[in-house]
Amino acid sequence: MTTYLRRLLPGYPRAPVPPQKRSTLPPIPRSLRSQLKDYPDHIERLQLALHGVSVARTTRRPRIEMAVWAIDDRLSRFLAEAQHELDAARCSGDPERLARAEEVEAVMFKVNRKNAWMGDEVFAAWFRAEVGPSKR
Length: 136
Prior knowledge:
Layout: H1 2-8, H2 30-35, H3 40-55, H4 63-92, H5 95-111, H6 121-128
Helix pairs in contact: 3-4, 4-5
């Protein structure tokens, strides 16, 4: 009984509160998901990047900012990969491969613009929500 009462007194060290577990993966902005619907591998890679942000140890940076950086990084990689494939298709001389590479490069160039996906409120709200007791 004494130990129980002592725990209620101020100044007694308390066990840290475990962070809340989220049952779902972070959402990908709707506009990105719709533009990349024909590229499930790219959507999965974005999802993994956002999941990494959601489970990362807390820093001084807000999670929403880290999530935006993660998406920017992945989208830049997608564009670089598409441009590399376009160069390889030009060298190969295969017209079908070239047409496909030009199409992929155009899509990746289009999704690389921030204003195309930055206004997604569901995405922003998910990363602004508290994950644990010491978010910042």
